[in-house]
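Handout, section B. The chain below has 180 residues.
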Amino acid sequence: MNRKTFFAALACASLAISMLGCGQSNNLQSIQLSSSNTAASSPGTIDLSGEGATAQLYVWGNYSDGKQKLLNAVGDVAYQIAVTSNSVDQFGDPLPTPPNSVQLSPNGLLTAVPPFICTWSNSAVPPATTPAWGLSGSYSVTATYAGFTSPAVFVAVASQAGSNTNGTNPTAECGPPPSS
């Protein structure tokens, strides 16, 4: 093989290798929280219903090639929890800052812990005998990974008995029944 042929082949090989990735990229575009480790889906509002209730959050990466990847096992995922502004409990008292009714583990596990709280309010008025639930307060959870921050997921807590001050909550529930 002569020198001219060798350099031509080398140039062609370099060009072919450099073009393999043309038009394709696999760059992280955003992250999101999900309550599923099998599919990225927005969990909406999570309700921790009952003392010690738990919910697991997962971080998913959204990539420029349209694929989604579970990031929890990758490491370097950080979760944060905060009280949503103007949040109150069922009696109108501000939720404690920092949050102390919900524990958030480093791997995204939420747990309702003492002091127990009810972040739902009952707006029913007599003669109604069943509650009309509205969310009076919540916690917001976000995650960060590789410089990206997820949109917040909101967490309601129903770990304390509800009030029956006006007779519209005879079973002293806190919030709507858990969905199955």
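Note. Helices lie at 3-19. Compare this with the example in section A.
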